[in-house]
Amino acid sequence: MTNFNTNELYKYENYVYDNDDVITLNLIDIDIFNNTVTCEITNRGRLEPASFDLYTNNNGTYFVYMLGANTHQVYIDDFTYMED
């Protein structure tokens, strides 16, 4: 898993696409002891924190984000640091 600047986790973001909408996920916390991640989710103008269980497979560490009937595997290493 990538080494993140824990003082600036919120600057790491990833996107999930739902038809015409883009859902933005920003990291808030990665808890390696409890295998959970907390993200701030921006969905159609609403902000909402959510926690997810972390899983590992051959491709890396990920969590499962459900969007309607669609399941997305969101890999932690796919989060990108957003400069100011």
Give the SSE order as H and E letters.
EEEEEEEE
What is the gyration radius calculated from CA atoms? 12 Å
Spatially, the strands of the biggest sheet line up as 4-3-2-1-8
The unreliable regions are none
Global shape: globular
- Summed up, the helix count is 0
Major sheet summary line: 5 strands, antiparallel
Roughly what fraction of the amino acids lie in strands? Answer: over 45%
E-strand count? 8
Category by helix and strand content = mainly beta
| Terminal residue distance | 23 Å
Give the % helix: under 10%
Mean pLDDT score, rounded? Answer: 87
Topology:
Blueprint: E1 12-18, E2 21-31, E3 36-43, E4 46-53, E5 55-57, E6 60-67, E7 70-75, E8 80-81
Antiparallel strand pairs: 1-2, 1-8, 2-3, 3-4, 5-6, 6-7
